[in-house]
Every structure is written in C-alpha cells, then in structure tokens.
C-alpha cells in the first residue's frame, strides 16, 4: 500500500509517497535528505529525532508519516535565517551546550517548543521540559544555561522576525 | 514493523465500521502502539487513524461534569484552563505523564484503552468515578479496568469521550519510575458528594479502588488516617522496579500526601 502525502517542511511544500509504516523521521532523512534530524534510540526515549509538527515538539521516530499528512514540520535545518543562527542555536553555541552534537537538534527544537509556551521559563521548567531529550556529553548544566539565554534572546526578537517565512518558531 | 494497511476515516461511524474487523487496530496518538509495532509485538492487518476525527476532540463543562473527547492529548488536558479550574488534579496528573513529546501526541482515550498497569489516567478514571463513553454505551469508571492491559471494551468498541464528575477536591500523587515517568504506584484521592474515593494505579494488574483507605478517610480526612491503613501485598505487582510489599507500603504514604494536597 502506497499513500501520497503532502507536508510543509521548513516552509516548503513537499509531496512524497510512503508506505503506511514509514516513519516521519524516515521521510525527513531519506526522502527529503534533511539529515539534521537524528535517530538515536528509535524507541522514543532519547529525543534526538524531535521536530516541530504544527508548532509542537514530537518524536519523529514515533509518528507515522501518514499521520503528519497536511502538517507543517520544522526541523533543525529550518531554524536559521541564512547564515544567522536562530537565537536558540546561537545560545547553544555561546554556552557550549554540546560536545558531540548528536542530541543537539532535538534539544534545540524541544527548547523552542518550551519557549513558545513559556517565554520566560524557570530552570525547573527547563529541566522538566527537557525530560524527553538525553545528552551523554554535557551533564546538562550548559544546556539549561543555553535554554535560559536562548529564551531571553527569543523574547528580545522583534515579532516580525519571529514570524518570518511562516515559521512557528 | 510488519506491513499494514492504513485508513483515515472522517467520522466515528466510519471508524467503528473499520475496526469491527478483529485484525484491525485503532491508532490514536500512537505513543504506545508505534513502539509496540516496531517490536513486532502486534501485527495488525490495518490501522485506523483516529487523528482526523474532530468529534473525538475537545473539552467542555456539562453540568457537574467535565467532558473530555477521547482524542484530547495529555498536553491539551494539562494546559486547559477549564480542567485547571474544575479538576486541577487531572491537569497536574496529565502534566506528569511521560515527556513533553509524548504528551503532545498521546491521548486520554488511547491511554485508557491500552490499560497499562502503570499508566496514570486509570487512577483518575477510578478515583474520580469517571464515566467512559463509547460508540455504543457508557461504562462506569469502576468497571473499565479488568486486568493487565485488559478493559471492559468489547472487540471493535471505540472510546469517544470521558465524563469526569467535578469533585470537591482531589489530588494525585505518584512514585514515578525515574527513567520512564510511569507510576511505580500512583494514588488519586477525591472528596466527592458521595464520599471519599481512592484510585490506585501501578500497584496491581490494573487500577483499583482502595476501599480500606476510603473508609478511613470518610471517618477522618487526614494524612494520619491514611497512613494508619495497612494494604495487603497479596496480588500486587512484583517486578524489578519494586516488590509487592514496597508497593503496598507506598499506597497509604501516597494517599496521605494526596490528602494533604487536597487541603
């Protein structure tokens, strides 16, 4: 059984044909060559595959591509504006919130979802909301600092910039 | 995953007709079903995606009850002003399920139908005396959970909504497994017009009412009264997370904390 689906990925229309068992993360990586979304555990534990679906973070290894039909997906490739990093990406860079970088795309997108709901999150909220993202390098402290700084930078952005290119972020 | 066919019906009637086939499974948020399919622990001929059914979504107040569509996500319940105002214990319970990504996809109806012994919602269904509405009838909250991963739902029966009578006060306390967040034991205590109700999840093969605690708390609604109750360990879950005796000991402790949280 093959099913045609349409997604809006990082603001661009994408039409692909998938089997019902094809995962959203497979469409992103294999069909659309957006390999910034990582597959870590493939069991919805680690959060390396987190993307935004209609503005909310999901684990793309635990969503069927057919379930996402008609939806808007934001991956890590969709955050930067040309050579200008998204404020959350910049904050991860500034605060050394990564070492190997494998978990980073998922961490950043979970953080962006958090800030969309809680523009000024407390450290406790940050820690609680990163519950679904595992990092084996940093010990999390710099990640929490980065999310706090990223949230502050996102608050300081002009609204027009945040809404540019039809992004949810 | 084995191959399967996929249907995305537009109405509940259409969905019910499709899941009448015993080889077909309904797909709600998929946060348990998709990992189960990956492990090849289930091999349905087809999935019926409930994601397109607007009839199954939404929250509303109906007299003395809160009515929640079966496909409402944990995140929606946790963030709902209506739930926070009427049954804040339920919003707090939803906020502690899994992680944010699971809460953004997982649904109330899916969790109830799956009847995981360590899931959180069953404590609320039993403890709040909720009613589970299906495509064909209403099931009393006390009668929903039968055994391990087993509910009173008939083959092909679909949960459409859950009615939660608004309690005078309620609180949910759980000892969470640190990695998964699942309840090693979870206890929901509710003060209702008909007396105190205590729903317990995680401890047994399925959620149940702790009647000994209810009697004690009807006599004196204090943490001390809850702590004084002894729950027998017979028949409780015994696994790598906790022994049956430990779970039995946790029930009154968590009930006491819930009583204190009821204020």
Give a nutshell description of this structure.
Chain A folds into two domains: 3-77, Beta-grasp domain (Ubiquitin-like (UB roll)), CATH 3.10.20; 87-161, DNA polymerase, domain 1. Chain A contains six helices and five strands; from the N terminus they run ββαβββααααα. Chain A has helices at residues 24-31, 87-94, 104-117, 123-129, 141-156, 159-162, and strands spanning 3-9, 12-18, 50-53, 56-59, 72-74.
Proportion of residues in helical segments of chain A = 25-40%
**If helices are DSSP runs of H or I spanning 4 or more residues, what is the number of helices of chain A?**
6
Q: How many domains of chain A?
A: 2
- Strand composition percent of chain A: 5-15%
Helix percent band of chain B: 25-40%
CATH superfamily annotation of the domain at 169-262 in chain B: CO dehydrogenase flavoprotein, C-terminal domain
Instruction: Please tell me how large the radius of gyration of chain A is.
Output: 15 Å
DSSP strand tally of chain A: 5
How far is it from the N-terminal to the C-terminal residue of chain A, by CA? 35 Å
Task: Report the CATH C-level class of the domain at 169-262 in chain B.
Answer: Alpha Beta
Largest interface: A-B, 29 and 27 residues
Organism (chain A): Roseospira goensis
GO molecular function (chain A): 2 iron, 2 sulfur cluster binding; anaerobic carbon-monoxide dehydrogenase activity; metal ion binding
InterPro entries (chain A): 2Fe-2S-bd, 2Fe-2S-bd_dom_sf, 2Fe-2S_ferredoxin-like_sf, 2Fe-2S_ferredoxin-type, Beta-grasp_dom_sf, Diverse_Oxidoreductases
Keywords (chain A): 2Fe-2S, Iron, Iron-sulfur, Metal-binding, Oxidoreductase
């Amino acid at each position: 059984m093959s099913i045609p689906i349409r997604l809006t990925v990082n603001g661009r229309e994408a039409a692909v044909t998938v089997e019902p068992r094809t995962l959203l993360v497979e469409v992103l990586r294999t069909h659309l060559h957006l390999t910034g979304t990582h597959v870590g555990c493939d069991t919805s534990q680690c959060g390396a595959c987190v993307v935004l679906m209609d503005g909310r973070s999901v684990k793309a290894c635990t969503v069927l591509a057919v379930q996402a039909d008609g939806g808007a997906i934001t991956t890590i490739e969709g955050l930067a504006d040309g050579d200008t990093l998204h404020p959350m990406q910049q904050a991860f860079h500034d605060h050394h919130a990564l070492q190997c970088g494998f978990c980073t795309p998922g961490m950043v997108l979970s953080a962006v979802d958090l800030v969309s709901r809680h523009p000024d999150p407390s450290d406790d909220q940050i820690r609680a909301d990163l519950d679904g993202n595992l990092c084996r390098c940093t010990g999390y402290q710099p990640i929490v600092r980065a999310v706090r700084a990223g949230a502050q930078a996102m608050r300081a952005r002009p609204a027009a910039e945040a809404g540019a290119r039809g992004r949810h972020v | 995953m084995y191959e399967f066919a996929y249907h995305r019906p537009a109405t509940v009637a259409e969905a019910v007709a499709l899941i009448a086939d015993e080889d077909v499974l309904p797909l709600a948020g998929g946060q348990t079903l998709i990992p189960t399919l990956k492990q090849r622990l289930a091999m349905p001929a087809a999935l019926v995606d409930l994601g397109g059914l607007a009839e199954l979504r939404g929250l509303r107040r109906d007299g003395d009850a809160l009515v929640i569509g079966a496909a409402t996500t944990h995140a929606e319940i946790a963030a709902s002003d209506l739930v926070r105002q009427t049954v804040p214990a339920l919003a707090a319970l939803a906020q502690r399920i899994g992680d944010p990504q699971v809460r953004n996809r997982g649904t109330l109806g899916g969790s109830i139908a799956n009847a995981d012994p360590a899931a959180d919602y069953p404590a609320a269904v039993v403890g709040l005396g909720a009613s589970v509405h299906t495509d064909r009838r209403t099931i009393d909250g006390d009668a929903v959970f039968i055994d391990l991963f087993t509910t009173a739902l008939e083959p092909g029966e679909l949960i459409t909504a859950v009615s939660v009578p608004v309690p005078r006060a309620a609180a949910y306390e759980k000892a969470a497994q640190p990695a998964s967040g699942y309840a090693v034991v979870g206890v929901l205590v509710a003060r209702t017009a008909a007396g105190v109700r205590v729903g317990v999840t995680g401890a047994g093969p399925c959620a149940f009412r702790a009647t000994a605690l209810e009697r004690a708390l009807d006599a004196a609604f204090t943490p001390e009264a809850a702590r004084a109750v002894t729950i027998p360990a017979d028949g409780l879950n015994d696994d790598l997370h906790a022994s049956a005796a430990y779970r039995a000991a946790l029930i009154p402790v968590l009930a006491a904390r819930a009583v204190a949280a009821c204020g």
